[in-house]
Structure formats: C-alpha cells, structure tokens
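Predict the assembly for these four chains.
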Amino acid sequence: MAVSTVDSKAAQYDTGEAMCPYRLVLEHVTSRWGVLVLIELLDRPYRFSELRRAIGRVSEKMLTQTLQTLERDGLVHRDAKPVIPPRVDYSLTDLGREAAEQVRGLAVWTQERLGEVLEAREVYDARKSGSEQE
Amino acid sequence: MAVSTVDSKAAQYDTGEAMCPYRLVLEHVTSRWGVLVLIELLDRPYRFSELRRAIGRVSEKMLTQTLQTLERDGLVHRDAKPVIPPRVDYSLTDLGREAAEQVRGLAVWTQERLGEVLEAREVYDARKSGSEQE
DNA sequence: CAGTATCCTCATGGATACTG
DNA sequence: CAGTATCCATGAGGATACTG
C-alpha cells in the first residue's frame, strides 16, 4: 500500500492542527531540513544519497519527509529514473528557486553576522552569571 | 533560583547536541516562533502580552523561550521597566533588524506565492490518489 | 540506490498554577 | 503584567530492517 509514508501518524509534519496555510508553507520552507535542502539544491540537482551526504546528520526518514513536503508544495521536482539500481534526482522548480533564494539570503546573513551573534552571546552569558544569586 | 527557565532540560531549544554554530543561529532565526517574533518587531516595539496577542496561538512559555534565545543572540533588545505592574518592551537591535528583513523577505514571498503552492499541492494529491492501489 | 515500515526516545511545546 | 516552575502529551526525528 502506498499510503502514508512516515509512521502513519502526523503525516507531512505540519503542526497537525488547523493553522493558516500561510504559516504552514512558511514552516515547511523554514523547517530545519527544508532550509538546508533548498540551499543545497540551489547549486545543482542532487541525488538522494548525495543530498544526504551533503547535508550530513540527517536521517533517511527526515530527508524523505522533507523532500516529499517540498515536492508537494511544488518547490522541488522529483525525477525518478526507472533504472536498476534506482536513480532519483531532485531539483528546484522555478517556484522553489525563488524560495531558495530567500532562504539563502538568510543563510548568507547568518554566516556574515555569526561573529557578532557569538559575541552577543558571551556578553549575555557573562551578564547572567554575574547577577546569579542562589 | 534564577537558573534554567524552561523545564530544566534542553535549555534554549538548541538541538541539544554539538552542531556547528552557524546552523544553530540559523535555526534560532528560522524557528517557528522566532520567525513570527522577528516579523512583528520589524513594525515596532512590542510588550510581552502585546506580542503574544499579535502572534496568536503561542504559549507564554514558548514566547519567553524564543525571546530569550533571540535576546541572547543579540537580535532582540529587552527593556524591562522597574515599575509595578511590570512593563517590558521588546525591540530589534540593529543586528536583529537585519535578520528580520531577511525573514520578512521569506514571509512576503510566501504570501505572494501561496496560491501557487496550494495549487501545486492539489495536483500532487490528485496524482497520488490517482495512482493509489490497495 | 532509494526508499518504506516500525519501533522508540526525548525534546518541543502547551496548560496550568504560582510569584514579584 | 511578565515572567517561572511543573506536569504532560505528542510529534519530530533517529535506528534498524526490509523491499523493488
């Protein structure tokens, strides 16, 4: 049977309940693995395992789930070649490319400003432990 | 005791384990409530409860946690006035404003393309149920 | 290789009650 | 009002085994 994939509970890792579709899409795009997948695919198409290695520390399950969600939202194109062994290429659709560009903006910003963030944390933590009173 | 906040386990909702700081920051910014907080604060400063109402469907706990994480990362400024009843204003730092702009880009894109995404989903679902075989 | 199907864990995150 | 502290449910996400 070809139904649910993923555990049978909580299908596409929506938050489950009723939520405005807007937030839902936003959460797919900003989801932990969604972000990374989109960024990788911005470079070039990837095969499943390639993608898995490129991202690192992602389980097959979560990658599959993420890719399915993004495919369903029309952001990722899945091209399964009917060969043995199977070969499946994932790439961005035009829509997906737009989304990915936005996400990349965020990622680039993060890299650029990482130092400042880390610095801010030290200040914050120092201040906290300074005013610590048991 | 002023220690842990949040349950005592899993302090700032990092993924817990060792992860490159880059991803960590990215996840704070793209976190479910982080995204929404940043976008709201882009308009103007907000008080705690105001923010809570503006976002809707967020528990005090998660809002507190999100705000603390963002404050620690130097993205949000917390201004606690020593009055009774307490009044705390949250606003973006310069760093936070930059991040928020990026996030807003994503949010705006989502709103603009929501229709296309929803449409893509219908196609996807229709195709799936078409090739359903028990 | 590219998934599926399960089982299982534990953090995410909500509800509630309490405090300064 | 703005948090803190707890208790708890459940869904995100990992590990493993199996299939086409």
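Residues 2, 4-8, 47-49, 60-61, 64, 80, 84-88 of chain B lie near DNA strand D (CB under 10 Å from a C1'). Chain B has five helices and three strands.
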